[in-house]
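Fold this sequence, please.
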Amino acid sequence: MIFIKTDRLILRNYRPEDFSDYYEYMCLPYTAQEEDFEPFTLKQCREAVNERLNDDSFIAAELKENHKMIGDLCFRRQVYEAFEIAYEILMLHTQTRAMPPKPAKPLWITFLLFWMRAA
């Protein structure tokens, strides 16, 4: 089980109720713009959240102030001993006090979690 609190975020495992917040940012064109997928449909979001419920490779990023999930982090081993580290953040929250202007802090935490799990 993953549960980490920062000044503004709670990093935790996915929950079934994360579906609507997940859909809110995964259906947007900018989320898929640099990726190899199209914006997600409702059905794809339900399936993705259900897959993430029992997978510690995916971490939900929740705002501490209102408990809204605004993104997620992923770190997992791929084929050939390669590792994937990825994140998606709802851009609405990146220029407010809720999140730092750059997503560097959540990414740094992902590296820390990865290092802790690999050790």
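The radius of gyration is 14 Å. The chain is about 30% helix and 25% strand.
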